[in-house]
């Protein structure tokens, strides 16, 4: 036990995992009371930049219900084949072996935010969408224990609404936001075309989806199923690939900015993109975390390549780069620890954290 006036030590990772397990196994009313206490204490920590931004986000962000993940309909894009019942799409069984195989191959979790979310930004519709089902109590507890104040998902979506400036990417975002479907017509509603393409794994190219791209983005009606394996089809494949790459480069830049702004240590970057973290943190430090000024800088730079070029040039000539980054990351760490320690206190008071 700590002495008088002495703060308890921070719990180990094992102790926190045990606390989450104990919470998850508790009765619903016990969970509700404990979570209310945890989130109230986390929301009552001393005022900080992130908590002020969270309040701004709660006021400014309009939420719309998230619709089911769409998939391209054979009846719309391959009507003749659909009429012959040769092309029918139905949702795949989430518990089936096919689904497990696709999850393992396309790794959709690589495109997920670093915190549990009930609110997400849709790059295609430019809307913040909320789940029909609320975030589970264990997920909400995990967030706070990891330093994310309640409604941090709303704040991240709001940041994206402020920084998502490139409207020419709306149509590709909407297209790649459709569910991945295999050649047998199984639709994997938790795996998008974006997930499949960004995984780098080999994938099928059903005529339904390729023709949908031609008609919706290229306004080209010359493609009709079944597509023959010729130069005309290859031209379409190349156009889809180029469109995805442009969208991918844009999205990971803007999305990573929002996630790293909230948590500089968030494990959200693929290994090849890890140098982006230092560049983003330098920008945030330069602008003292001012969301509006950061948004203006991102829009002015215009592309991820231009961003990299300009920030690298600035870093190269700035002897105070490490101080600029260190100041910002230290402030964020202090904010997150204040939230997490408030949660530790609440769980200890209820004997759910015994360390």
Explain what you see:
The chain is mainly alpha-helical and 355 residues long. The chain is 57% helix and 6% strand. It has helices at residues 13-25, 28-43, 49-60, 74-77, 79-83, 97-106, 137-145, 152-163, 170-176, 193-199, 207-216, 231-262, 275-286, 291-301, 304-316, 321-349, and strands spanning 63-65, 90-91, 119-122, 127-130, 179-181, 186-192. Strand 3 (119-122) and strand 4 form a beta hairpin.
Low-confidence stretches: 1-6
Intertermini distance: 10 Å
Q: Please outline the major beta sheet.
A: 3 strands, mixed
Number of discrete helical segments: 16
Strand order, largest beta sheet? 1-4-3
Estimated radius of gyration: 23 Å
Structural class of the helices, strands and pairings?
Answer: mainly alpha
Written as H for each helix and E for each strand, in order along the chain, the element string is HHHEHHEHEEHHHEEHHHHHHH
**Strand tally, please?**
6
Mean pLDDT: 94
The residue fraction in helices comes out at: 55-70%
DSSP strand (E) fraction?
5-15%
| Shape field | globular
Protein topology:
Layout: H1 13-25, H2 28-43, H3 49-60, E1 63-65, H4 74-77, H5 79-83, E2 90-91, H6 97-106, E3 119-122, E4 127-130, H7 137-145, H8 152-163, H9 170-176, E5 179-181, E6 186-192, H10 193-199, H11 207-216, H12 231-262, H13 275-286, H14 291-301, H15 304-316, H16 321-349
Parallel strand pairs: 1-4, 2-6
Antiparallel strand pairs: 3-4, 5-6
